[in-house]
């Protein structure tokens, strides 16, 4: 359901995030992130030879890529997925968002910590654990990393049939159809409504919601990012790709997450932890206030940092302590 996946941000902003992660010591990533120490370009080239032609030498003499070049950024992601996660055939249709792999993995690593902390410090059995990827997009990045790095089961949803068709191709190519299920959400206004089946249980959900509130706002944001990267204005289409429903929705991020929270009430007994990325820190207060009104039994804000970029997610649950105990006993 591409709707939520929106705020994943454009290829160039993804490039900048990836560049931030490749710079300095990467010490802001999760301690368990395998990309913490940067990239071993020689090893990546061995796994994905196409990267070799795009390597450049930095003033310090290190091998890197031009992070303002969307082709180079995409190829680096392909190399990372091939080398670290046995996903050698990962690709994207033209116009869809290109996600930075290290930052996407960080969200999953912190969700794994959340689950472990909810289970008296023990990781739930990975074969039992099921993730709902709300707005999986054509890149299917969270679902693929959850399956490959963690061994989780995944339900991946999107409103975009084209994205799901490409996702099905990726699953077939990498023989992951038995671990990841794709499901189309029929309505752009629905997130959890009409998605989960009766008796279906999800241990944790994730979402990267649309960031902007309008096409004009998205365009203005793209211009600022191009200027920050020192790119010419005519680089927009190449460096800031992304379909409209990936980039914006009425009301932007805040209204989208509020709608998600409202819809989560109806399936609150079927999910242990709900979660969503929150790009703007000023959105936290109204979101926390809404959760209080919805009578959640627990909520947490988890801060993350990827290079120079600060991010966070908010998580909430409706399960009572007794229900949580039963959940752990029967599922984990």
TrEMBL record:
It holds the Pfam family Methyltransf_10. The keyword Transferase applies. GO terms for cellular component: cytoplasm. Transmembrane segments: none annotated. Residues 1-31 are annotated as: Disordered. Its EC number is 2.1.1.181. Keywords: Cytoplasm, Methyltransferase, rRNA processing, S-adenosyl-L-methionine, Transferase. GO terms for molecular function: 23S rRNA (adenine(1618)-N(6))-methyltransferase activity. One of its GO terms (biological process) is rRNA base methylation. Residues 9-25 have a biased composition (Low complexity). It catalyses: adenosine(1618) in 23S rRNA + S-adenosyl-L-methionine = N(6)-methyladenosine(1618) in 23S rRNA + S-adenosyl-L-homocysteine + H(+). It is found in: Cytoplasm. NCBIfam families: PRK11727.1 (NF008725). Belongs to the methyltransferase superfamily. METTL16/RlmF family. Specifically methylates the adenine in position 1618 of 23S rRNA. This is Ribosomal RNA large subunit methyltransferase F. It comes from Rheinheimera riviphila. The lineage of its organism: Bacteria, Pseudomonadati, Pseudomonadota, Gammaproteobacteria, Chromatiales.
């Amino acid at each position: 359901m591409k709707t939520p996946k929106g705020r994943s941000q454009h290829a160039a902003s993804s490039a900048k995030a990836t560049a931030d992660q490749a710079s300095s010591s990467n010490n802001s990533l999760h301690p368990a992130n395998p990309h913490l120490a940067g990239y071993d370009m020689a090893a990546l080239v061995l796994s994905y030879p196409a990267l070799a032609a795009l390597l450049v030498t930095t003033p310090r003499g290190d091998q890197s890529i031009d992070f303002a070049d969307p082709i180079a950024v995409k190829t680096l992601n392909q190399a990372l997925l091939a080398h670290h996660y046995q996903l050698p055939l990962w690709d994207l249709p033209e116009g869809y968002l290109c996600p930075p792999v290290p930052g996407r993995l960080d969200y999953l690593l912190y969700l794994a910590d959340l689950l472990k902390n909810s289970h008296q410090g023990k990781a739930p059995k990975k074969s039992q654990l099921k993730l709902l990827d709300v707005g999986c997009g054509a890149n299917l990045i969270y679902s693929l990393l959850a399956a490959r790095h963690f061994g989780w089961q995944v339900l991946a949803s999107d409103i975009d049939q084209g994205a799901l068709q490409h996702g099905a191709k990726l699953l077939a190519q990498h023989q992951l159809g038995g671990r990841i299920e794709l499901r189309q959400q029929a309505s752009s206004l629905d997130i959890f409504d009409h998605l989960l089946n009766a008796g279906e249980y999800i241990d944790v959900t994730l979402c990267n919601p649309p960031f902007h509130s309008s096409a004009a706002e998205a365009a203005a944001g793209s211009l600022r990012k191009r200027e920050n990267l020192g790119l010419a204005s005519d680089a927009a289409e190449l460096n800031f790709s992304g379909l409209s429903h990936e980039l914006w929705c009425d009301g932007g991020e805040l209204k989208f997450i509020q709608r998600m929270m409202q819809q989560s009430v109806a399936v609150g007994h079927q999910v242990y932890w709900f979660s969503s990325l929150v790009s703007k820190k000023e959105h936290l207060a109204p979101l926390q206030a809404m959760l209080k009104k919805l009578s959640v039994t627990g909520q947490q804000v988890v801060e993350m940092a990827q290079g120079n970029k600060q991010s966070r997610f908010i998580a909430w649950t409706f399960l009572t302590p007794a229900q949580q105990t039963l959940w752990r006993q029967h599922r984990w």
